[in-house]
Amino acid sequence: MAGFFPMIDLKLRPNRRVIPAGTELWRVHLTRYAPDEFNPRLADIHFHGGRFDGTVLDQYHSLYMAESALTALAESVLRSRPFEAPGERTIPYRAVWQRSLSCLRTRSDLILVSLVSGADLAAVCQDAALLEDESNYARARRWSSEIRAQASDAMGLVWESRRNRSEHAMVLYHDRCVGPDGPPLEVLPDRGIPDLGSEEGRERADELLAPLSARIAEPQWP
């Protein structure tokens, strides 16, 4: 990998996980993006941006997904949502406004670096803080680039969801997903919720979120 990385002397030995062709995956995204469109926005090196987004030092676009519709929703809307009496979490309407839940199917095998187990994290010289620390995404972005530099075949990362334990979330790198056979994902248009902010969309999302004791608030406008 050309450019700034690797910047470390540590030898990483990433464990791989293959997501087979034909696997259905789920994504919550701004409706203005196509369901299989990578987010072109780069994160700030130190401040704003997603956990494993690209930066100006490593300019890849990202696409976050999960292995179930519930996990995709949970990863998108349940961050920092406390339980309230009598034991439910309320998600502000703005969290789903102008957003969609889409289903995609892999057209080819995806080779991902696994960060699921303690052994997986140790293989890249990290521990659970890489995934648990919500205050230091800059560190996670930096380590994503270090992993990419020492795992040239990796098309992304996979880890255990923090908001729906035992299921997995993942991110794809756009520059590793371009091949002679075309895009790695195809959209299944009849499987998702095209408008999470609509009355029907909120009802369907609430049904999905019920096992996690969460629901979406009614819209409130000034």
Describe the structure.
The protein has helices spanning 69-77, 118-123, 129-132, 137-150, 199-209; strands spanning 16-19, 24-30, 62-66, 89-91, 99-106, 110-114, 156-160, 168-173, 185-187, 214-216. The protein has 222 residues and is of the alpha+beta class. The chain has one domain. The chain has a five-stranded mixed sheet with strand order 1-6-7-8-3. The protein has a three-stranded antiparallel sheet with strand order 2-5-9. Strand 7 and strand 8 form a beta hairpin.
Broad structural category: alpha+beta
Q: What is the number of beta strands?
A: 10
Oligomeric composition of the shown chains: single chain
Summed up, the helix count is: 5
Uncertain stretches? none
Major sheet: 5 strands, mixed
Sequence of strands across the biggest β-sheet? 1-6-7-8-3
**What number of domains?**
1
End-to-end Cα distance = 50 Å
Beta-strand percentage range: 15-25%
Record the SSE blueprint.
Layout: E1 16-19, E2 24-30, E3 62-66, H1 69-77, E4 89-91, E5 99-106, E6 110-114, H2 118-123, H3 129-132, H4 137-150, E7 156-160, E8 168-173, E9 185-187, H5 199-209, E10 214-216
Parallel strand pairs: 4-10, 6-7
Antiparallel strand pairs: 1-6, 2-5, 3-8, 5-9, 7-8
